[in-house]
Amino acid sequence: MRTDTPITVFRKDYQPYPYDIPEVSLAFDLAPEATEVRCTMRVLRKPGASTDAALILDGEDLELVSVGVNGAPLAADGYHLSEQSLALYGLPADATIEIVSRCNPSANSTLMGLYVSGGNFFTQCEAEGFRRITWFADRPDVMSRYRVTLRAQPQYPVLLSNGNLIATRQLPDGRNEVEWEDPFPKPCYLFALVAGNLTHRETTVKTASGRDVLLQVYSDPGSETKTEWALDSLVRALRWDETRFGLELDLDRFMIVAVHDFNMGAMENKGLNIFNAAYVLADPDTATDANYEGIESVIGHEYFHNWTGNRITCRDWFQLSLKEGLTVFRDQEFSADMMAHDMDAAAAASARAVKRIDDVVALRAAQFPEDAGPMAHPIRPESYQEIGNFYTATVYEKGAEVIRMQHTLLGEEGFRAGMDEYFRRHDGQAVTCDDFVDAMESVYVRQHPGRDLSVFRRWYRQAGTPRVTVKLDHDAATRRCTVTLTQECQPVGVEKKAGADYVKAPYHIPFALGLLDHEGRALPLRHEGTVQETALLELTTHSQQWVFEDIADYPVPSLLRDFSAPVIVDYDWTDEELALLSAHDSNPFARWEAGQELATRQILALAQARQAGRTLHADAAFIDAWRALLTDPAIDAAYRARALALPSEKTLAERMHAVDPPALAVARDFLRAELGRQLTAEFRLAFDQNQTPGEYSPAPVPAGMRALKNLALSHLLAAGEHEAQRLAEQQYEKAGNMTDSMAALSALINYGQGEFPQEALAAFYDKWSDNPLVVDKWFALQAAARSTTVQTARDLMTHPAFTLRNPNRARALIFQFCLNNARGMHHPDGTGYAFWAEQVLALDALNPEIAARLARALDNWSRYVPALRTPMQAALQQVRAHEGLSRNVQEIVSKALEFAA
């Protein structure tokens, strides 16, 4: 763990590496406590580089055995070894360097570099893990061709690395030896190695050009039945990328390997993707609909990186969104297309809207608070202390929205042309975000002579979420409606250092708008020579106006359709207008948005009443609007489940001047129960009509039916309906799939009565105690339960199945409690924050990357009510003062305290 003084790295200081390393040969003699690595690399000094330039190689927690140049040992005065680097001096312009080192994979609790999990060897090298394997230029702009030799004892029969399999043999000492070669240059962060006792499922498919390629999914023995969906998802991803973007798999094989100890969701290593087992293993008994959807999405994401991230990679880590934002957009589109597959036009539009809603819900819950907090940064940051802290919702999800805006501005055909141009210009290179926008701009300027994307580029260098204020003026005499859009974005995070005179420049905001009459009918909009229901307005200055002709009466605006830009809209709709939009808007996303705004207003009003000690009651008009959504036969079940879901506490918190999580939790619970009481008959009908008997399928239609049925069950149980308890108990006992089992158990734990909920919890664990992913679900259910306190969480930590060393288990209990339990975490006595500080420090001693993610739970402490703010600040100060704190956590807590809102 690095505990020295943090160093801030700035994008403006980027310098090319003075050497090329075109070829690397790695030989591993694998042993859990002492793996020897022989790294042989050809090193070429770049033209123009100083002949005195040292070759600086990164390394951490390595034992140097030997170093040689051109076959001869290097003299002691020819190199300098430090804790984090190996410098070689006086090298010829063309040299072969050989470095032999040792590492201890079994002691590597950081799960970065080479480590042991479940008795097998795995690697994780992004962002800076390769330096824990061997000394190397651990930066993404050094791209090399790799040849890898793996040698291991017979208990590790599966030996995998990147690229194509070259040779396998048994050595005289009984060990197995395997050689792999990757024909494509790649940065070292894409290196991968897997060695162990694994089983696999495979299939051979023919690519669009007629080549046969082998697809394989590896996992622990005995889990073969749980990898079918993953392999099918991989085939679908391969076909989709060929069809949608014309991109074909470029290797002879593509492998996915599941591991239970993993810091992230998955990693796109060239041809050898290593996955958190949670995003590989699934069967109806152990995985929910959400798990199935997540597996398909993540497999798509990592496969799509083969081109957007691997064939073209980042010049430096400031450009991380170049690959991640783009690939998130691609996996979102893939998932939407899979959800809409084989549906008629109307059903497909609804299915795609469901996916869009889910993506925006996630963005608002995670990224909007980040944009408003001390860690706010552009999708292309200007500086960092630990790059691991910038694998954020801003880089990923907001980065995807920035790509989506380019897709919106160019259209599907134009965006595809821009992608083709991007690959034509940069295949095999390490490039920048500007290079990507340049390719898109080459198409945009042809479509719009005299215009460019110079203003749009500000999305890459400015942080924060812009606010767009909308004003409508209607002239009945001329039948004209004038729409005025005004944008602003205040300095956030590190931008505050610029001082009071710092003013951010306007963004280029594609703003999709529709107008409805007071019967809910769409009005035709004449815009840029077209007549359509939706006009795409391009806001590029502080304020602009657009005039629409032949609008007889003052219209009801449908704003930011399909969430055409990641902005906050300010418009003072009446509740009656929102109800009309919720019932009639032809744009599914905007229709959902109107209902969410109604619910948000209702919950915030209830929270204020709670804070003031007033009696809580729900407005009849809101109940009627929810009844209309619940009973509308024209809306499919999946869409209704989203439309009727109450806004999350995290999203609601962004609308409070002083955040009060317990008040929000009480308000949401009251409204959930009140809806259940007043719409009992309607919810019971929805529950009955959306049963899915027969064989389980994760397809969108039955999954949507289960989502609506289980939402109805939670409302009925929250309302205290005795019959609902019986329904929930019956569903839990007879459930034929994990989705229904978990939904019933969750409802019972949170709203049930009597002894059954606790008995069911105990029985659930007994049944699934040998399945780590289901045990994670068991911990997570309890961690987020309404009745769970700090003491409950502590008690759960003493359970024999709990360990902080496994990231999934830590996320299931500690993260769930700290991030998603408003009552327990934010108790006024401050015990939740003391618990948070304790766990951050405990995790930091094991795995700083995971600890830093937990540290983010208190980012926005200064925006909370005073009673909570003070103990939050004390907890942050306690963590920052801890001796030996990692750079990862130090950066998070220091910024939280320094750049408080």
From TrEMBL:
<feature type="domain" description="Aminopeptidase N-like N-terminal">
    <location>
        <begin position="108"/>
        <end position="190"/>
    </location>
</feature>
<dbReference type="InterPro" id="IPR014782">
    <property type="entry name" value="Peptidase_M1_dom"/>
</dbReference>
<dbReference type="GO" id="GO:0016285">
    <property type="term" value="F:alanyl aminopeptidase activity"/>
</dbReference>
<keyword id="KW-0031">Aminopeptidase</keyword>
<dbReference type="Pfam" id="PF17900">
    <property type="entry name" value="Peptidase_M1_N"/>
</dbReference>
<comment type="similarity">
    <text>Belongs to the peptidase M1 family.</text>
</comment>
<feature type="domain" description="Peptidase M1 membrane alanine aminopeptidase">
    <location>
        <begin position="229"/>
        <end position="443"/>
    </location>
</feature>
<dbReference type="Pfam" id="PF11940">
    <property type="entry name" value="DUF3458"/>
</dbReference>
<dbReference type="Pfam" id="PF17432">
    <property type="entry name" value="DUF3458_C"/>
</dbReference>
<protein>
    <recommendedName>
        <fullName>Aminopeptidase N</fullName>
        <ecNumber>3.4.11.2</ecNumber>
    </recommendedName>
</protein>
<keyword id="KW-0479">Metal-binding</keyword>
<dbReference type="InterPro" id="IPR035414">
    <property type="entry name" value="Peptidase_M1_pepN_Ig-like"/>
</dbReference>
<dbReference type="InterPro" id="IPR037144">
    <property type="entry name" value="Peptidase_M1_pepN_C_sf"/>
</dbReference>
<dbReference type="InterPro" id="IPR045357">
    <property type="entry name" value="Aminopeptidase_N-like_N"/>
</dbReference>
<keyword id="KW-0645">Protease</keyword>
<keyword id="KW-0862">Zinc</keyword>
<keyword id="KW-0378">Hydrolase</keyword>
<dbReference type="InterPro" id="IPR024601">
    <property type="entry name" value="Peptidase_M1_pepN_C"/>
</dbReference>
<feature type="domain" description="Peptidase M1 alanyl aminopeptidase Ig-like fold">
    <location>
        <begin position="464"/>
        <end position="572"/>
    </location>
</feature>
<dbReference type="InterPro" id="IPR038438">
    <property type="entry name" value="PepN_Ig-like_sf"/>
</dbReference>
<dbReference type="InterPro" id="IPR001930">
    <property type="entry name" value="Peptidase_M1"/>
</dbReference>
<feature type="domain" description="Peptidase M1 alanyl aminopeptidase C-terminal">
    <location>
        <begin position="575"/>
        <end position="898"/>
    </location>
</feature>
<dbReference type="InterPro" id="IPR042097">
    <property type="entry name" value="Aminopeptidase_N-like_N_sf"/>
</dbReference>
<keyword id="KW-0482">Metalloprotease</keyword>
<dbReference type="Pfam" id="PF01433">
    <property type="entry name" value="Peptidase_M1"/>
</dbReference>
<dbReference type="InterPro" id="IPR027268">
    <property type="entry name" value="Peptidase_M4/M1_CTD_sf"/>
</dbReference>
<dbReference type="InterPro" id="IPR012779">
    <property type="entry name" value="Peptidase_M1_pepN"/>
</dbReference>
